[in-house]
Amino acid sequence: MLIDAEGEKRGVVALEDALELAAEAGLDLVEVSPGAKPPVCKILDYGKYKYQAQKKAAEARKKQKTVEVKEIKMRPNIDTHDYDVKVRKMHEFFANGDKVKVTLRFRGREMAHQELGTALLRKVQTQMDEIAKVEMYPRLEGRQMIMVLAPK
User: How far apart are CA 97 and CA 19, in angstroms?
Assistant: First the structure.
């Protein structure tokens, strides 16, 4: 199946004839769809075709948004005002479409009271429930407890 330089279908043409038509036009014969029955070929300027494909790919890359993972660090005995500031910051991150990794660091004897950390992360989870979903539930990794939230 051949499509000429003007975009009109020429029908099923022998390979030699198609190459001859492309040479007459001073263009290239490009196989556009090799899996089709019969294969589809087009007469066009291959350099220009590659350039346009590259431009399309660059435009697509420019338009996509990368999701960043922002980190909020806390301690088990965080004060209410400090907690509120961190929650406000989390709201900003979710508004921008970013994920939030909440890290709760235990120091010294705080490791003996891990239930305080679990309770704090549960509080964060319930407070963020309407705007974010839990992507990774709280889990202990060494001396810190980690939870990941993603915007809904």
Answer: 52
